[in-house]
Each structure stands twice: as structure tokens, then as C-alpha cells.
Amino acid sequence: MRLYNTLSRRVEDFRPSAGNLVRMYSCGLTVYARGHIGNFRTFTCIDALRRTLRYQEGFEIRQVMNFTDVDDRTIAESQKAGVPLREYTDRFIAAFLEDSATLGLERPEAMPRATDEANLRAMTGMIQQLEANGHTYRSDGSVYFKISTLPQYGRLSHLDVAGIKAGARVDADKYSKEDARDFVLWKAAQPGEPTWDFGVGPGRPGWHIECSAMALRLLGEPPIDLHAGGVDLVFPHHENEIAQAEGATGRPFSRFWMHVEFLNLDQEKMSKSLGNIFTVPDVLQRGYRASALRYLYLSVHYRKQLKFTWESLDQAEEALTRLMDFLARLDTVTAPGGHAAVAARVAEARRAFADWMADDLNTAGALGVMFELVRAMNAAIDAGEVGAPDAAVIREAFDEFDRVLGFITLRRAEEATPPVPVETIERLIEERRIARRQRNFAEADRLRAELEAQGILLEDSPTGTRWKRK
Ligand code: AMP
Ligand code: ZN
Question: What is the Cα 99 distance to its own chain's centre?
Fold first, then answer.
């Protein structure tokens, strides 16, 4: 498979460095709030990459995705809420896992939390290694990385290090390229902040050291094969991750760097700090299904910005409905006998699909192949040129496409679970039956309308009332 590598700024052949195992790390959510649909664009594209490597390219995957559960923002927000840090971040980890399942994301093999003791020890161990290698200095109890000690600093983000003020330092986790300077590895204990002491003095980790240390602890010897995240992480986060890992081990950190472009709302990056966010539950609340959102994410190449609008989600829903209608139509094909022309057309589509996905994860191209196949096969069914064995071949191809894309399986799972718990539906049907018996038809109609508003239709028959999805 070919993949754009931010490090080289070129599309390169990707395969694991040794054997069949891909060792990949993706930066996870900073759990100070529920993730928004911009965050989940990045996570969904990385999920599509993971699935392509796994199901299409046949590699085994070991993916680590962390939770940043200690940093400037998690501490500030937990303090504001008056809730202990661990308890505060627990909520958003739970919400993340729920939204991930709703979007059909495969679970990474490991999902470490920065504040687990083994991870904190890996961080302090790495800082000690950096101290031993002469890459650090201390000031007021904090430990800083001295970027002038690492000649390759700035390579990932193409930073011009010549203009950087030597000796100036920054304590914040987030800062811009213009403010590049020595960054903090371990922050001295502050009143009211959580503090650990595992060998570099009492304090807490800076954001960047967390990922370098957890990646190497859980993925083994560098270089790992692939490191991924959203484009806003290129600088300073990933630049600093490289500096720490390479400064500590003397070896390259990751062979490939993959970055997903922004999801924008009204020309701006969707972000908590701007306040222009929607979450997955917000999208569901408006009556959309997560499968449509997943489809929308994958309809745009991951290196292009995605302009989010509700109309675009409507269009995604329409396209997905067309696909599902076609798959339902296949079930009505019962004529015996297969046709060589259908088999050949399907084989061609499978090849084209795989080629697009292998070409830097071109999901938009791959979707185009699916819809061309739908059009061609609808025409063939109209012409009576598709038999039941052909339908099976077509179905198999779509199953194969969906192992990578995932929205068909997701839509089927959504169809199988009603939007309202079955017990609630049955209780309301029973209340309606009683209302009707009491000739309270206004109440009966209200109950019917209440269910319909939640996507459930009632059908009365002599044998009782049945329900179905709208
Ligand atoms: P954070 O919780 O801020 O660390 O972000 C988690 C992930 O979401 C990171 O990989 C970010 O790069 C990514 N991300 C944040 N905002 C957006 C956005 N608007 N569009 C796409 N990805 C984003
Ligand atoms: Zn990270």
C-alpha cells in the first residue's frame, strides 16, 4: 500500500519493517470533554487505515491509542468542576468508548491512560535517559528539553530552527510554531495539581512525553512503523515526540507519519476552544444515524479538509440509502443461473476498489467504484441479466468493501436495534391499548405520535398492534 508520509512529504510504499506486524500509534483524545465530530473524523480515518492494512493488505495490527488524562486542559477543567482528575477524566473516557462503538470504530489493541503508574514510570525513565544523554536542563523543579541539542529538531514540521531564541522555554502544552523553544518534559509540583514522584522530582508530565513513552513501552523497539493523528498535532506535539524518543534512544522513532486534515464548521476548524462543536450524540439527536456520519467522513480524502454542514450529512444519508436499497434489491433476485459478464464486472470493481484504497487511502475513489457497480448492476437486473448466484457474488464484494469502510455493517446493526428500547415501545403500545379501550382516542393518538417522533410506526391489525421502524 502507498501512503503519504509527512516526514518525507511524499507518497511512499508502506509495509512493516519486520515480518507481518504493523506497530502503530495514534494520539487519542484529551479527555477533558466529550470528543466532537472533528476529533472523530481523525479517529475514523485512522480506523479506515487500520482496517485497510488488516483486511485488504493482510497485515496483523498492533495499535496503541492513548487517552491524555493529564495535561493543562484536563487539570484546569477538573479543577473548575471540583472533581478529582481521575474521576473527571473517567467520564469522558466512557463517552469516548460509547461514541467509538456508535461509529463502528475497531478497538485498538491497547488504550493506555497516561496516569497509570506503569506509564508514568516509563515517562520518568525516558526523561532520565534524556538527562543522561545531555538533552535536558532543570529550572525551578521542572525539566526541559533543550532543542538545540538535537540537530534534527524541526524536521517533521519543516521548522526553521535558526530563528529560535536559545535558552527561552515554554511551559504550556500547546503553542505555535512561532513560539518554538525549549519545552517542558516534567512540570514541578503546583498547589492543587496532581503530583507524582518517580525519580525526576515531584511533579507531573508534560503532554508530549506521554505519547513518546507510552508508544515505546507498548510497541517495543523503535522505529515503530506508523504514527498518526490530526494535522494540528504536527507541531509541536509530534515534533516533540520525535525529539524525546530519538533523544532518549538514539534511533528513529517512527518510519511513517500520517496526518488527517480538519473537519471545519463555517470555514473554521471545529474545536472546543472556538465553541463551534457538535458531538456524536448531538448528531443522533437531530435524527441522523452514525452510519451516515461515518459515510460522510469517508467520502472525502483524509488529506483534504471536510466542510461539515447538515446538508452534507443529508447527502451522505441519501447515498447510503441508495446503497442499502440496492443491497435489498439483490435479495429479490431469484432467477437461477450465473452470468460470466456479472462475475467479470464484479472482479473488476474489486480490483479498482483495492487500488484506490492502496493509493494513499483514497476512500472517495473507492466509494466511486461502489456506486459505479451499483449503477451497472441495477441496469443488469433491469435487463434480466443477473441470477441468484450472481447476486451472491455481488453481495460478497460489498461485504469485502465494507470490512474496510464499515458503514454498511453499522447501518445493519442500527436497523436491528430500534431507536427506542423495546420495553418502552411495548409499554407505550399497552398504554395506548388501554386508552383506546377507554375510548380516550386523543390520548391514544398522542401515544402513537410520541412513538412516531422517535422513529417507530405502529400498525394495528385484528390480532393486535405491531411496530416497525420508520
Ligand atoms: P485532542 O483531544 O485535542 O488531543 O484531539 C484528538 C484528536 O482529534 C487529535 O488527533 C486531533 O488532531 C484531532 N482533531 C481535533 N480537532 C479536529 C478537527 N476539527 N478535525 C479533525 N481532527 C481534529
Ligand atoms: Zn500524542
Answer: 10
